[in-house]
Design goal:
Chain lengths: 400, 266
C-alpha cells in the first residue's frame, strides 16, 4: 500500500501549497523550515511538547458517546472528540504550544498571531504568558466587536491586541497585517499562524502539531467501540482541526473523511465561506496556492459566516489536495442549520459547542439519519461555545 | 533592444541615473491615471511603475494599501490597468511601463493569457511581489517569450547564493528593496544599501534599481549616487492622496521636478 507522504520538500500538495511570499520573507521561512526539520523528530523537543499537552492543556481529550443525541437522531452512533475540554477551550492550543516552543528554541523573544474568532489569539497569548514571550495579536476590527470577551481574555493574559481596519476588517486582513509585522520585525519575531494555511512550512507544521487529535482518536475509538468510525466529520475554515483529526486517518481504509464548510446564508446567495463546496477557482493568497473565493479580476471577495472562525475566503492547501484526490469530501452547512445543531447539543447532551463546531455537528446529524444504528460518526468538537453566547443571544434579540 | 534596455543605455551614456515613480493605477480615480502618467514623464520619469490594485496587498504599507482601496472602489483590476497602458501608448511609445502587483490577478486568467494581454498593451516589465522565482517558472517563460521583462526584488536578507538564482531569471533590471519591512516604512541606511548594491553588481550586469524608503530630494540624491535607478513609491502616492482634482497634476509635477533635480545632481 502506498503511504500518504505529503507535502514535497518545497511544501507542495500537487499544484497546491508552496511558498508565495515577498522576497523579504524568504530567508525567514527558510530558517523556520530548517529549524522545524531539526526539531520535529527531536526526542527532547517532542518530550517537552508532550509534557505541556498533558499537564498544561489536559490531554488526552476524551471521546464521548453522545447517546441521547444519537437516539434522538435515530441512526448512526455519534461520538464527539472533546477538544472543547482543552485549556483555553479549543484545539488551537495544540498548535500554539508547538510553535511557541520552537520560537523559544530559535531565540525569538516576540511572537505575533492573527485571529478570527479569537481562539487562536487566546491560545497564543496563553502560551506566550507561560513562556514569558512578548505577544501581539492582530484581529480584524469587525471581529474585535463580535468577540469582545476573547479580546479581553487576551489582554488579561498580557497580549497587545491590534484591531485591523483595512479591507473587510476580518481574519484575512488580520493575516495581511501580521505578515506585514513579520516582514518588518523578522529578526526578533516568530509568527505563530493558527491554521493549516500560509507559506510552507506552516500548513505541514500546523497539521503535525494538530495531528495529536487524530492519533488519540484512533486509539480511543478502539478502546471505546472496538473499531474505527465509518466517518470522521470536522468543520473547515482554514482547516486546522479537520487536518488534525483527518491526517492520522488518511491511510486507514473505509473511514470517510468529511470537511464541513460554512454555507452562511446559502451557497446560492454568494454570502458564504465555502470555497471547496462552491467550486471556487484556484488562486494564490497568504503564501500558498489553493481554492479561493474571488471575482473575475482575481480580487478576493468578502465572505460570510455566523461563525468568525470559519469566515475565511481560502482553505488550507492540503484540503484542496484531499478534495482533488477524492480522499476527503467537502460539504457546507448554513448559519441556520449550524444554529439549530448548536441548540440541540446544548439541550440533549449538556454541552455548549462553538459555532464553528456546530457546523460539523449539523452535518453529522444529517448523515447519521441515513445510516444504521451500528455505524459510527466521529465529530471533532473543536471548541466550546462560551465565546459565542453574545452572538447567539443577539440572534435571538436578547441583551445580556 | 527593449525599451527598458534602451532607457538604461541612453542614461548610462549621459552619466545619469533613472528616476522611476510608482503610482497605483486608478488612484485617486481611474479618469486621472493616464494624465498622471504623461505628467510623470513630462517632469522627468524615465520609466513608470504602475501598481495593479489588489484586495490583499500584503507587502505594502498603509499608504499604498489606501491607494489600492481607492482604486478598487472603481473596480480597477488588471483588465482596466492594461487598457490604461494601451491608452498611454497612443501618445508615448518610448517610456517603459513596468506593472507591479500580486500573483492572484495573474493566476485568475493564467500566465499565458496574461502575457498575451500584457504584450498587446505594450507593457515592458512585470514585478509580481509574491511570485518568488521558485514558484513562477512558467510565468517567466511566457513573459520572456514575448520580450516582457520579469523584474524581481532583492532584499537585505537575500543571501548571495539566492541573488544568483534570482538574477538568472530576471531581465530588464533588478530591484533592490532597501528596507526590511513594507513599502513606506522607515528611513534607509545609505551606507548599508551602498554595500549591498556593490555586492549585487558583482553577480549581475543588469541595472540595479533601489526603492523603499526614498522620501525626499536628499534620499533620492544619495540613492542616485549608488544605483542605476531610483524608485519613489509611497512618497508619490502620498502626494496624490493629499491633492484634489484641481491641483493633482500640478502637485505631482512639482514633486517630480524636485526629485529629478536631486537625482540629476548626484
Amino acid at each position: 500500500m502506498q503511504l500518504y507522504d505529503m507535502p514535497d520538500a518545497r511544501g507542495h500538495f500537487g499544484q497546491f501549497g508552496g511558498t508565495f511570499v515577498a522576497e523579504t520573507l524568504v530567508e525567514a521561512l527558510d530558517e523556520l523550515r530548517v529549524m522545524y526539520e531539526k526539531y520535529r523528530h527531536d526526542p527532547e523537543f517532542l518530550a517537552e511538547y508532550a509534557y505541556d499537552l498533558k499537564h498544561f492543556v489536559g490531554r488526552p481529550s476524551p471521546i464521548y458517546h453522545a447517546k441521547r443525541l444519537s437516539d434522538q437522531i435515530g441512526g448512526a452512533q455519534i461520538f464527539l472528540k472533546r477538544e472543547d475540554l482543552n485549556h483555553t477551550g479549543a484545539h488551537k492550543i495544540n498548535n500554539t504550544i508547538g510553535q511557541a516552543l520552537l520560537a523559544k528554541r530559535m531565540g525569538k523573544p516576540r511572537v505575533i498571531a492573527e485571529t478570527g474568532a479569537g481562539q487562536h489569539g487566546v491560545a497564543t497569548a496563553t502560551i506566550a504568558a507561560r513562556l514569558g514571550l512578548e505577544c501581539v495579536v492582530y484581529m480584524g476590527s469587525e471581529d474585535v466587536k463580535r468577540q469582545a470577551p476573547n479580546v479581553f481574555r487576551m489582554k488579561l493574559l498580557g497580549a497587545t491586541v491590534v484591531p485591523v481596519e483595512s479591507g473587510s476588517k476580518t481574519l484575512k486582513d488580520a493575516l495581511n497585517e501580521a505578515m506585514r509585522d513579520w516582514v518588518t520585525n523578522v529578526h526578533n519575531t516568530f509568527y505563530i499562524i493558527g491554521t493549516v494555511a500560509g507559506p510552507h512550512p506552516y500548513p505541514m507544521m500546523v497539521r503535525d502539531f494538530q495531528a495529536v487529535i487524530g492519533i488519540e482518536a484512533k486509539e480511543q475509538m478502539m478502546e471505546m467501540a472496538g473499531c474505527q468510525p465509518d466517518a470522521v466529520v470536522a468543520c473547515v475554515g482554514g482547516g486546522s482541526n479537520a487536518m488534525g483529526i483527518f491526517y492520522p486517518y488518511i491511510d486507514v481504509p473505509n473511514v470517510r473523511l468529511i470537511g464541513v464548510e460554512a454555507a452562511g446564508h446559502g451557497i446560492e446567495t454568494g454570502m458564504h465561506a465555502a470555497p471547496l463546496t462552491a467550486n471556487s477557482p484556484v488562486g494564490v493568497l497568504h503564501g500558498n496556492r489553493t481554492y479561493l473565493m474571488q471575482d473575475a479580476d482575481g480580487q478576493i471577495i468578502e465572505t460570510h459566516s455566523v461563525s468568525a472562525g470559519l469566515d475565511y475566503p481560502g482553505v488550507g492547501p492540503e484540503h484542496a489536495w484531499l478534495k482533488d484526490i477524492k480522499r476527503a469530501e467537502y460539504v457546507a452547512i448554513t448559519d441556520d442549520e449550524a444554529m439549530a445543531a448548536f441548540h440541540n447539543l446544548c439541550r440533549t447532551e449538556g454541552i455548549i459547542p462553538a459555532l464553528e463546531s456546530s457546523h460539523a455537528l449539523a452535518h453529522a446529524q444529517k448523515m447519521a439519519k441515513t445510516m444504521s444504528k451500528d455505524q459510527i460518526v466521529l465529530v471533532n468538537l473543536s471548541g466550546r461555545g462560551d465565546k459565542d453566547i453574545n452572538t447567539v443571544a443577539k440572534l435571538a434579540n436578547i441583551t445580556l | 533592444m527593449s525599451r527598458i534596455q534602451t532607457t538604461f543605455a541612453t542614461l548610462k551614456q549621459q552619466g545619469k541615473t533613472a528616476l522611476i515613480p510608482y503610482i497605483t493605477a486608478g488612484d485617486p480615480h481611474p479618469k486621472h491615471t493616464v494624465n498622471l502618467m504623461h505628467t510623470l514623464v513630462k517632469n522627468g520619469a524615465d520609466m513608470i511603475e504602475l501598481g495593479v490594485p489588489f484586495s490583499d496587498p500584503m507587502a505594502d504599507g498603509p499608504v499604498i494599501q489606501r491607494a489600492s482601496e481607492r482604486a478598487l472602489v472603481h473596480k480597477v483590476g488588471l483588465t482596466a490597468v492594461l487598457a490604461m497602458v494601451k491608452e498611454f501608448r497612443q501618445t508615448n511609445q518610448t517610456t517603459p511601463i513596468v506593472l507591479m502587483g500580486y500573483a492572484n490577478p495573474i493566476e485568475a486568467i493564467g500566465p499565458t493569457v496574461f502575457a498575451d494581454r500584457a504584450k498587446a498593451a505594450d507593457v515592458d516589465g512585470v514585478i509580481t511581489v509574491d511570485y518568488p522565482p521558485e514558484e513562477c517558472g512558467e510565468f517567466v517563460k511566457e513573459l520572456r517569450a514575448r520580450d516582457i521583462a520579469p523584474v524581481f526584488l532583492l532584499s537585505p536578507t537575500t543571501e548571495p547564493k539566492r541573488v544568483e538564482l534570482i538574477v538568472n531569471q530576471a531581465s530588464g533590471f533588478v530591484y533592490y528593496v532597501s528596507l526590511k519591512g513594507v513599502t513606506g516604512a522607515a528611513n534607509l541606511d545609505i551606507v548599508e544599501v551602498s554595500a549591498r548594491v556593490a555586492s549585487i553588481r558583482e553577480q549581475t550586469n543588469l541595472p540595479v534599481g533601489v526603492g523603499f524608503g526614498i522620501r525626499d530630494a536628499a534620499t533620492a540624491k544619495a540613492t542616485a549616487a549608488i544605483a542605476d535607478a531610483v524608485v519613489v513609491g509611497s512618497r508619490m502616492v502620498q502626494e496624490i492622496e493629499a491633492s484634489n482634482d484641481d491641483n493633482l497634476l500640478e502637485n505631482v509635477a512639482a514633486l517630480m521636478k524636485e526629485l529629478k533635480t536631486a537625482v540629476d545632481a548626484a
